[in-house]
Hints:
By secondary structure, this protein is mainly alpha-helical.
Amino acid sequence: xxxxxxxxxxxxxxxxxxxxxxxxxxxxxxxxxxxxxxxxxxxxxxxxxxxxxxxxxxxxxxxxxxxxxxxxxxxxxxxxxxxxxxxxxxxxxxxxxxxxxxxxxxxxxxxxxxxxxxxxxxxxxxxxxxxxxxxxxxxxxxxxxxxxxxxxxxxxxxxxxxxxxxxxxxxxxxxxxx
Length: 178
């Protein structure tokens, strides 16, 4: 079992590195394309006809990869009014239940997004002429990565910290609570 855990953690580390690199590259590409599109449209009066579609596709991928990275880094937002109660040992079962429900929601979303990708296979984007399934594939890909990070956090740290938000992490560090 320990060999599986260490292999899973190593794979997740590699995925996380690739994920971070892709988010950075996508962000740079989007910024460059926006500047290029504005310059071509307003300076040279010759707009990119396909630029907006590509920017939307890249942004979609960046958002879903970024959401997975946010879960991995505990940088997502959570309403943490109940957080002090959940930290008590009597409520450990509630933390586990929260993770199980969260994982089920992610799995259902993956299934629904996969269905959406299948529907988009026959639809081409008007300007680029590529299947819109490439755009929609960002959703299940990002959710699969998110599920991977949730499972790793659960295996590594237990249920309580899995969906801990950025604010709660900062408050706990400043208050000396772990």
